[in-house]
């Protein structure tokens, strides 16, 4: 049976907005770790990736996924796949209230069971500062976990005057090779993210933004260094593992 949510009451959305505004003040948009300031990220040994995958037609039951990979060789060190029941509805711009609690729980399980494998940075399948209120999922998870976080979105969120128009498409076409990027400048003149051609093999960019405790330039450089393909390996592996988990445990359904 398909499980759906009814729209949330207006008061709940207002409460979420207020909470985002409060937490937004705690975001650190600069490099805080020694490895971030190193040209070759010397001292970085573990990178994390998180994702949620849903059973098709079911908005309630999902697989919350955490993976930790070695750096720089990007080999899997730790996998945690966990079925969760979501309690909050999906509302555009408020994804974090739906997903963050379960991602935090996954990080907490790792901290309790094997703290030496805790990631030094977490890649999030979604946006950070590049968000309607400059506080997306990667910021939310970063502030509440205290870990450096990077938001990497596969699709452009059309926000604050940044549009997927002809100009945007021509900027994408001008990205010649893996590592090339251009800034996502909103109406206020502030740069909230960058479009990155993450791989020579893929002409379609990813959209990188600061989550917490990292600068935008470092986030872009790190994202590029973690890409075998278009999507950075920590996020790609989290997506693969969570879908695999659903296929094994719920074989009758499509994911």
In short:
The protein has 255 residues and is an alpha+beta fold.
Topology:
Elements: H1 10-24, H2 34-37, E1 46-54, E2 61-70, E3 76-85, H3 95-113, E4 121-125, H4 137-145, E5 149-153, H5 166-173, E6 181-185, E7 191-196, E8 206-212, H6 216-225, H7 233-249
Helix pairs in contact: 3-4
Task: Please tag this protein with its features.
eight-stranded mixed sheet, single chain, 255 residues, globular, 8 strands, 22% strand, alpha+beta, 7 helices
Can you describe what's shown?
There is one protein chain. This protein has 255 residues and is an alpha+beta fold. The chain is built from seven helices and eight strands. It has helices at 10-24, 34-37, 95-113, 137-145, 166-173, 216-225, 233-249, and strands at residues 46-54, 61-70, 76-85, 121-125, 149-153, 181-185, 191-196, 206-212. Strands 3-2-1-4-5-8-7-6 form an eight-stranded mixed beta sheet, sandwiched between helices. The longest helix has 19 residues, at 95-113. The model has no long low-confidence stretch (mean pLDDT 93).
General form: globular
Mean pLDDT metric: 93
Distance between the termini: 15 Å
- For the report, how would you describe the main beta sheet? 8 strands, mixed
Report the structural category: alpha+beta
Order of strands across the biggest sheet?
3-2-1-4-5-8-7-6
* Proportion of residues in extended strands: 15-25%
Radius of gyration from the alpha-carbon trace, in angstroms: 18 Å
| Oligomer category | single chain
Count of DSSP helices? 7
Number of strands: 8
- Low-pLDDT stretches: none
- Element string (H = helix, E = strand): HHEEEHEHEHEEEHH
- Helical coverage, percent range: 25-40%
């Amino acid at each position: 049976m398909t499980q759906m949510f009814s729209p949330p009451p207006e008061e709940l959305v207002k409460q979420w907005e207020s909470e985002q505004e409060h937490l937004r003040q705690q975001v650190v948009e600069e490099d805080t770790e020694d490895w971030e300031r190193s040209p070759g990220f010397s001292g970085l040994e573990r990178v994390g990736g998180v994702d949620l995958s849903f059973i098709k037609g079911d908005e309630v039951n999902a697989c919350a996924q955490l993976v930790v990979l070695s750096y720089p060789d990007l080999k899997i060190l730790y996998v945690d796949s966990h079925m969760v029941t979501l309690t909050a509805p999906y509302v555009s711009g408020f994804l974090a209230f739906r997903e963050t609690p379960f991602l935090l729980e996954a990080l907490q399980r790792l901290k309790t069971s094997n703290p030496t494998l805790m990631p030094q940075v977490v890649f999030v399948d979604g946006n950070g500062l590049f968000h309607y209120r400059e506080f997306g999922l990667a910021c939310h998870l970063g502030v509440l976990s205290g870990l450096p976080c990077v938001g990497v979105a596969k699709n452009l969120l059309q926000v604050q005057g940044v549009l997927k128009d002809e100009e945007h498409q021509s900027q994408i076409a001008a990205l010649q090779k893996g590592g090339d990027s251009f800034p996502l400048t909103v109406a206020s003149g502030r740069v909230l993210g960058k479009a990155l051609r993450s791989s020579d093999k893929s002409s379609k960019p990813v959209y990188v933004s600061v989550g917490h405790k990292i600068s935008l330039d470092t986030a872009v450089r790190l994202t590029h260094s973690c890409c075998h393909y278009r999507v950075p390996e920590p996020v790609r592996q989290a997506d693969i593992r969570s879908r695999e988990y659903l296929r094994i445990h719920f074989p009758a359904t499509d994911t």
